[in-house]
Structure formats: structure tokens, C-alpha cells
Design a protein that fits this description.
single chain, 224 residues, mainly alpha, 0% strand, ExbB/TolQ_transport
Length: 224
């Protein structure tokens, strides 16, 4: 309790500029933790949806039935979104007398667009985490440098300089560096982890897109 109180005392006794730096870092940390929690829930849901959809898709369920099931749901995401984009284009063009290659190209293009949208959804919030992770230590260092400059400036105005005179000001300034690291470390770790998840999910979605393209290719050419 005493240690916590001393930290608050250091913060309250810091200069206005250093306090502003600390406030910015505190806000950045709060928002980054919100983004971390949001991404964790998103990827958890994406994993569940992918497992569920893969089980239904490869169980031999009729594609029209599978597409109709998705129409009754809200917030279709991930692999199912890629499937719906390709199959919707397939059913739309199947009613027209188009060249098989043209139909195949249109279906693949629709799935690529859906895949791109899913990647954008997965990457939401990651640029902010990257920014916090890369800039927070420097922002904290700025507050520290400013605080130490103030301490030495005040030191020059006293006749007898002692460690006890300069130590409080330096301690206040170093709190800014500590806050910068506290904000940066979780952001960097989470960014790296979520980036790996984005690559993993995107790879699985792309593999499914290619497999589904093969299925559509057989159905399209069976019409000829």
C-alpha cells in the first residue's frame, strides 16, 4: 500500500507536461487492452465458426441447403463468408448461358473479395497495437527527459546540490518511462500473437477457397 501511495505521489508531484505524457500513455494502455480483449473474443468466435462450418461442409450436406442455412443467420464470418460469396455468384450465373471459364473466374473473384474483407476484419485494431507498441517507450522517454531537464534546472538554482535534492525529480520522470514500457509490452506481445493468427486463419480460408473452387469447377463443367 505504501509503495502504491509513493507512486501516486510521484505522479502528482510531476510537472504538468510529464503528467500529460503519463495521461496519454494511460489512455493508450486502456484502449490497447480493450483492443486485445476484443481481438481475443473475435478470434475465439472465428475458430468456433470455422470448426462448425468445416464439419457441415465436409459432411456431404447439399450446398444449396448449406447456403440456405447461412441465410437465416446474422454476422456470417470467416470461411462461411467465403463460401457464400462463391456459391452466390455460382447460382446467379448458373441461370445465364455463360462460358464455363467466365463463370469460374467470376466465382473465384467473388471469393477473393470475400477473403480480402475477412482479412481486413481480422486485422482490425492491430495497427493501433503496433503504434502503441512502437511509440509508447519513446513517449515515456520524452516525459523522462523533460522531467530530468526540469530537475537539473531546479538543481542549478540551489546553492548546495545533494542527491536528496535531485532524486525526487528524477524519480518522477522515470515513472513516465515505466508507464511507456507498461503500455508497450502487452501491445507488442499481442500484436505479434494476433498477426500470427491472422496469417493462420487467412491461410486456412485461402486453402478452403481453392478446394471449393475445385468443387465449383466440376459442377460448372458438368453442365456442358
Amino acid at each position: 500500500m505504501g509503495q502504491e501511495l509513493s507512486i501516486w505521489q510521484l505522479v502528482s508531484q510531476a510537472s504538468v507536461f510529464v503528467q500529460l505524457i503519463m495521461l496519454i500513455l494511460l489512455l493508450a494502455s486502456v484502449v490497447s487492452w480493450y483492443q486485445i480483449a476484443q481481438r481475443m473474443m473475435y478470434f475465439g468466435q472465428a475458430q468456433k465458426e470455422m470448426v462448425r462450418f468445416e464439419s457441415r461442409f465436409w459432411s456431404g450436406t447439399d450446398l444449396n441447403t448449406l447456403y440456405a442455412e447461412g441465410s437465416d443467420k446474422r454476422g456470417v464470418m470467416g470461411m462461411e463468408s467465403v463460401f457464400r460469396a462463391g456459391f452466390k455468384e455460382f447460382t446467379r450465373l448458373a441461370k445465364k448461358k455463360l462460358d464455363s471459364d467466365a463463370m469460374m473466374e467470376a466465382c473465384q473473384r467473388s471469393m477473393r473479395v470475400a477473403l480480402s474483407r475477412e482479412e481486413e476484419a481480422m486485422e482490425s485494431g492491430l495497427p493501433f497495437l503496433a503504434t502503441v507498441g512502437s511509440t509508447s517507450p519513446y513517449v515515456g522517454l520524452l516525459g523522462t527527459v523533460w522531467g530530468i531537464m526540469g530537475s537539473f534546472h531546479g538543481l542549478g538554482q540551489v546553492q548546495q546540490a545533494t542527491l536528496a535534492t535531485v532524486a525526487p525529480g528524477i524519480s518522477e520522470a522515470l515513472v513516465a518511462t515505466a508507464m511507456g514500457l507498461i503500455a508497450a509490452i502487452p501491445a507488442v506481445v499481442s500484436y505479434n500473437r494476433f498477426s500470427a493468427k491472422v496469417d493462420s486463419f487467412a491461410g486456412k480460408y485461402e486453402t478452403f477457397s481453392e478446394e471449393f473452387s475445385s468443387i465449383l469447377h466440376r459442377q460448372i463443367h458438368s453442365r456442358d
